[in-house]
Amino acid sequence: xxxxxxxxxxxxxxxxxxxxxxxxxxxxxxxxxxxxxxxxxxxxxxxxxxxxxxxxxxxxxxxxxxxxxxxxxxxxxxxxxxxxxxxxxxxxxxxxxxxxxxxxxxxxxxxxxxxxxxxxxxxxxxxxxxxxxxxxxxxxxxxxxxxxxxxxxxxxxxxxxxxxxxxxxxxxxxxxxxxxxxxxxxxxxxxxxxxxxxxxxxxxxxxxxxxxxxxxxxxxxxxxxxxxxxxxxxxxxxxxxxxxxxxxxxxxxxxxxxxxxxxxxxxxxxxxxxxxxxxxxxxxxxxxxxxxxxxx
Length: 296
Ligand code: ATP
Description:
This protein has helices at 40-47, 88-98, 103-116, 132-144, 162-177, 189-195, 213-220, 262-269, 284-295, and strands at residues 2-11, 14-24, 29-34, 55-60, 63-64, 73-76, 150-154, 181-185, 198-203, 206-212, 224-229, 242-247, 252-256, 274-280. By secondary structure, the protein is of the alpha/beta class. The relative contact order is 0.14.
């Protein structure tokens, strides 16, 4: 298990992290969310031991993370970190050696991943000759070729088309199944919703919302109702708690103050011909925008 406990980090007067704690278990994907400058990269650097924290501890399976452990951590950084003059094969051998793999092990892993990512023909090509998306696949395979215990993915889908996003997603799910702990960061909320069982949202280094995706959604509550049927906007007038009604082509979206408003709406229109009535779960995107806005 990865355990991050009460981390504080200052860069001079900049408070980059203010009391961050979370855990990630084997086979779990944990989402680290925040705006630009919220402290995500700093968190990754502290986990990797690249920078020290002012306060707090990070442990992997109960032990502090030092150089003897970093081989067990794969890191796909947002900014690409490949040696572009090397060939794919040379790059993999270089990273493999740093992770303590021998040549045959790297060779076997590289053959497996190039086939899986459908880029076998690039094995002897220089990295700089590859497209951005294919460079991203090389970066990913270099991070996972020694089956890391912990994998940190910072915007892993950048530059990938939908087919390649699918290839990478499937690979991430397989690593999860193998028991890999995965910390996932992305500004694309649909990926976080799809992948992460648990998450934390940081605002200026401070965790403002934390828990399972389900808990986070429950805390936020129901804020929208969709109605399709023989109704008009005036049917929703004067219902206490309905703040706004959007009349779209074939449906009405009602913005409400909370879940207690739902039965009131239902009561007001129950005699009408209704084809759809749905109290809609909030999206992570809505939660993020509102909660980050409030905290600021
Ligand atoms: P992004 O989404 O843009 O990558 P982030 O969430 O990864 O942002 P960090 O890079 O961790 O954010 O930065 C957190 C804060 O710390 C920011 O205010 C940033 O300017 C500051 N910071 C980061 N690295 C340094 C540094 N080496 N020296 C001084 N300040 C830094």
